[in-house]
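Hey,
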Amino acid sequence: MVTQRFRKAIIITIALLTGFKGRTQTPGLGHWNVINARYDINKTWNLFVEGQARSQKLPYDYFYNEIKGGLGYTPARGTNLLVGVGKYTTYQLNGNFKSPVQFREFRLWEQLTFNNEAGPLKFEHRYRIEQRFYKGGNYRNRFRYRINATLPIPNSRVYINGFEEVFLTNRTPYFERNRLYVGAGYKFTSVFTFQVGYVSQYDYNRNINPYTKKFLQTSLLFNLNKHQKQEAKQPATDE
């Protein structure tokens, strides 16, 4: 049976997506590249590192990159606490990492993740609080909730997954961003997984026209984890 929490998430998702109709969009399909690695120190502690690069068009006009990492703690099966840190750089939109840089950001965050299942579906619920420091002295807080669903295909190494994420701030108008992803992955080995999907990201800014940007996302995922059975893993990028 689908959990009550998941029903609420579906209702929120439909309401948000319905409100997005009629918004302007930036032209072209962008490319979103991800490489993510996780290493379990033991059954309780784990490390991760992730790098990303995004383009306005496929496959050029790269305008954004980030590198981040963190330390995770697993107090119980299916639950993880994490503290992360990262560097985020946004360049001019036309060109590949074209100067001058628009934004340089240093970010800290605290995160709670827990998993549950509904039949063959595996759900991951992620709650994150971010402290964002910009070059020039600006500072902002942000709050994020993501629900990720994974459906393994029986008798194969293939799985289907998707997520919905909402971004909120402590400043009016509070709602900042919505991100929707649908995709699939293939587990080549217990260590390496390749994932490809479609991302639709809606950004709201009361000072400029809200807009939606769509990306083709390709991800290389490495899970150096000898303490957990392979079928229990839920491949997903940290972002």
